[in-house]
Write a structure and sequence with these properties.
By secondary structure, the protein is an alpha/beta fold. The chain has a single domain (8-279), classed as Ribonuclease H-like superfamily/Ribonuclease H (Nucleotidyltransferase, domain 5, 2-Layer Sandwich), CATH 3.30.420. The chain contains 11 helices and 5 strands; from the N terminus they run βααββαβααβαααααα. The longest helix is centred in the last third of the chain and has 25 residues, at 212-236.
């Protein structure tokens, strides 16, 4: 279990696709080779088969295209605010969707706010790709990267064993081999929406088709799923009483209703509807 629930909690999720520039350099392909062809070459080199045409690639060979987080903040008067944020803010804007901007914005925000991060397989995957790609892109995130001299003297996002500022739910809920649940499996047995209209292996196809807003929507739903599993795990650990747990879930419903009313955010209302169905409400 995790030891604390911090004043600021960010349940986050990251989406990525093969990095065509890296693929061209790695496989010595001309610059005019189309992105889709580069992806195919990268998957082929990664062990593609007829049964698995798009194998999982090393994260350093991929580019981050979307980051989403549910942000829970406990104020000094102990009141709680909840919000959903995602990058890029404007997927249709070419400058806003640049990988370097996504990485710099998110990592420096973490360094500034020092939240407790919550993810699902984030220690080996989501957080790792953020650091790898930030280094690859020449990004500086000094406050995020700074480590205290001793574990108890400050925030340390690189200490997975002793630091309480990064909670990877799979480390708590997982096991060995087939006993480790996927995010979708863990969510569904808890009555929480998992994968709905999009699967993880469809993200690259959506990217090639220019459908970044759908990737961001999928990313936001995964962040919401992660947050709801964290709430349930925190309740299991005694951080929330029964009534407090109900209040926390009500905050999520209110947020979904409010933000889902905005143009382009209809997927949040769909998430809420699916959640209510799974809960039998």
């Amino acid at each position: 279990m995790f030891k604390t629930v911090a004043k600021d909690v960010w349940a986050f999720d990251v989406e990525w696709v093969p990095d065509a520039d890296a693929g061209r350099r790695l496989h010595q392909l001309p610059q005019d080779v189309e992105e889709a062809e580069v992806f195919e070459a990268m998957w082929k080199a990664g062990g593609a088969t007829e049964e698995e045409p798009m194998p999982y690639l090393k994260t350093v060979l991929c580019r981050v295209v979307s980051i989403a987080a549910v942000v829970r903040k406990r104020k000094d008067d102990n009141s709680i605010t909840l919000s959903l944020t995602s990058l890029p803010h404007h997927p249709e804007n070419l400058e806003d969707r640049q990988e370097a901007k996504l990485l710099s914005t998110f990592l420096n925000a973490i360094g500034d706010k020092k939240p407790q991060l919550v993810g699902f397989n984030s220690q080996r995957s989501d957080l790792k790709i953020l650091v790898q790609r930030a280094v690859a892109q020449g990004i500086q995130a000094k406050s995020f990267a700074k480590r205290p001299d001793k574990p108890w003297e400050g925030v340390d996002y690189f200490d997975s064993k002793f630091s309480p500022v990064h909670v990877d739910l799979i480390e708590i809920l997982g096991g060995f081999g087939k006993s480790t649940p996927s995010l979708h499996e863990m969510a569904n047995v808890c009555g929480i929406p998992g994968k709905m209209s999009v699967e993880g292996d469809e993200v690259a196809t959506l990217w090639l088709e220019g459908r970044l807003p759908e990737i961001v929507a999928y990313n936001e739903c995964d962040a919401l799923t992660t947050y709801l599993i964290w709430l349930r795990t925190a309740h299991f650990g005694g951080f929330f009483t029964e009534s407090e747990y109900e209040e926390e879930q009500s905050r999520v419903r209110q947020m979904l209703e409010m933000e889902g009313a905005s143009p382009g955010k209809e997927h949040l209302l769909e998430f809420l509807e699916e959640w209510e169905r799974l809960q039998g409400n």
